[in-house]
Structure formats: C-alpha cells, structure tokens
Amino acid sequence: MKVQIIGLGKMGLNLAYNLIDHGYTVFGTDHNQAIREKLESYGGVFFNDFEEMLKEPSDRTIVWLMLPSGQITNNQVETCVKKMRQGDILIDGGNSRYTDTLINGQKAQEKGIHFFDVGTSGGMSGARYGACMMVGGDATVFKMIEPIFSDVCVEKGYLYCGKVGSGHYLKMIHNGIEYGMMQAIGEGFNILHHCEFDYDLPKVATVYNHGSVIRSWLMELAENLLKDDASLQDIEGIIPSSGEGKWTIEEMLRLELTAPVITQALLNRYASQDEEKYGEKIVASLRNQFGGHEVIKK
Residues near 84 by Cβ (< 8 Å), separated by ≥ 6? Predict the structure, then answer.
C-alpha cells in the first residue's frame, strides 16, 4: 500500500519511517528540500511538489497531511481536493481546530474524496515507534485503512471516534488535559525547589514514576530533563501556547461548563510570555498609593 505524506517535519518524517518499517511504500514532499536525503536513504521517495507526487499511478491515492494547523493546512486541503480523484483518501494528521476540520471535510465530500481527521499524540517518538491516534471520518471507509493505524500505533493506541471532526475534537480535549497535567507537575517541583529540604529532584521524579498514582510519561520526561540540569538555569520560563488549550477553553465556555485547572494552566502560559509585566506594575504602584507599600525599582 502506498501512502503519500505532505509535510516531512519532526512528526511527518518519523511517521514516514514508521510506515516504511511496516512495509508501506512512502512518497513524501516538503518545502524543505534538504529532507530528501533523509527520506530516500531510508527507502522513501521524495518529490519536489504535491502535483508531481500525485502523478504516480495508484488504484486509490492516500494523502496524509502532517502540517501546522490553520491556514497552511486549510490551503493544502483545498489544493488536494482540486487535484485528487473521486474515491481517494485525504488524512489530516495535524492539530487542526475541529471547526476547520468540519469545513475541510465538507469540501472533500463535495468532490467525492474521503476525508479523515486524525488527532495524533505521542510526540516524535510516538510517530516513529508507535503513536496514539484518534480518527474521525466515514466508518465504512475507515475499515479499509484501519490496518495502517493498527501498524503505526501502539497496542490499543488508536480509536475510531465517529464522523469527521470527532478525531480532532478529541485531540483538542486531550491537549487541554495535557496543559493541566504539565502545570501540576511544574507547580509541584517548584515548591520542592524552594522548600527547606534538600531533595535530589531527579530521584524524586524517579520515585514518583514508580508505583505512585502520578506515574506517567510526563513524569518520566521530567526525570530526564532534571537529570540533565536540575537547576534549569539555561531555560527561560516562557511557555508558548500553540492553540489547543485555548480552543478547549472556548469549547468549555460554549457548552457553559467549567474547567478551572485547564483554564489556569492556559493563563499561566500567557503570563509567562508577558515580559513587560505592566499589569503587575500597576498593582505594585496601587499598593504604594493607598498603603505606602514599597515599590521595588529596577
């Protein structure tokens, strides 16, 4: 079976390796031509552009997008829909917002193309050696391509979720939960870092991750990074936000529900990026104005 991948970055290239390991013929294209050697040295075939790749004969084309969410993916979906044939399969394996996915799925359906949205978790190592995937799309057609997911995912690591949009929706909520879990780990180790006891933090992470109720892959990663440098002196405490946490909060508000942990985790990410601290300066100055409290000057 042939799989054509558009986007051979950290996730896409590792997915390509995974597919090749399982006997698939992998075609790939990426704007970064330097990736050609990496793909071809592992047995894949690199094409300069999507149109050239699509010319390769195949009974049913399977195109798998591994691109950044937003306009880049949406534009590529439009291009694919125009060029692909009726009955072909188009998979979006990126972190697209589910509302974009609903639109993209409709565009594909109008042209007779089977569209699947695949929320992908497990990071680069997962893409390479066994991912977790959440799949939305037509149930009947999914049965045809299910062996791919069985091959590239860990055992019990894929789920057919339902109609188009359900895969990316589930991944959105997954990432919101991830925000909260990482925030809790960060806060806990921050307290340990500042407390009166002289803990060996890498060993703390090790014992937390063996038999405790908070053992997890995230704790394993914490153990690894603390072993490298427990002081983290070379790391800026700035936490980028790629969007999924915000989308989760917006969905919470739409449904009129509550998710205080995920919300606070997102707000902490925003606060970490505020280098000017203008709001904090206002508060410090107000305390000085009404109570004579000291204002710390630079």
Answer: 54, 61, 63, 90, 111, 113
